């Protein structure tokens, strides 16, 4: 079992793009419907460039969550997205940016979530201190609406102006 520990932030401006060392197109869909059910995890299939993964995450909001990820054949992943995904498929471009000894994953969302850009940084422990680059804005780690599972139910383009501002 792996425990994912990460912080999420909104991104300001686009100066980070010039620092990007890699970008990859992602498409992901959820295979379980979490509305009115007793599920304690999300199950998703993700196409990441030319590879596919099946991912299971505990449904916790905050710094750390259980996460399991298994590579699957690309053709299987593509078929699962087309035939088994519940709700819309989330698409985004993920950029990797190195800053102060850490790799930041910056997700620029597409489609119904266009306009939303979120940066994530993984940590070794919940008490790790993170040096923030100038392009990092408000932290949204504890706001469920910024998680992909929430974006698959209520895309960014359906949010009110108030919802687009962190609380």
Automatic annotation (TrEMBL):
Top-level taxon of origin: Bacteria
Matches recorded under Pfam families: CYTH (PF01928)
Residue ranges constituting the CYTH domain according to the UniProt record: 2-153
PANTHER family: SLR0698 PROTEIN
Protein name (Swiss-Prot/TrEMBL): CYTH domain-containing protein
Organism: Thiomicrorhabdus heinhorstiae
């Amino acid at each position: 079992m792996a425990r994912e520990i990460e912080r999420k932030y909104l991104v300001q401006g686009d100066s980070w793009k010039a620092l990007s060392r890699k970008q990859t197109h992602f498409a992901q869909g959820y295979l379980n419907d979490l509305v009115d059910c007793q599920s304690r995890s999300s199950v998703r299939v993700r196409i990441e460039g030319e590879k596919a993964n099946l991912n299971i995450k505990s449904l916790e909001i905050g710094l750390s969550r259980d996460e399991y990820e298994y590579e699957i054949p690309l053709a299987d992943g593509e078929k699962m997205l087309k035939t088994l995904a519940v709700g819309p498929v989330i698409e985004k471009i993920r950029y990797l940016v190195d800053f102060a000894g850490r790799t930041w994953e910056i997700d620029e969302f597409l489609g119904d979530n266009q306009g939303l850009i979120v940066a994530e940084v993984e940590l070794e422990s919940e008490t790790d201190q993170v040096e923030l680059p100038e392009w990092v804005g408000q932290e949204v780690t504890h706001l469920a609406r910024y998680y992909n599972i929430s974006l698959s139910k209520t895309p960014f383009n359906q949010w009110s102006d108030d919802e687009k501002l962190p609380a």
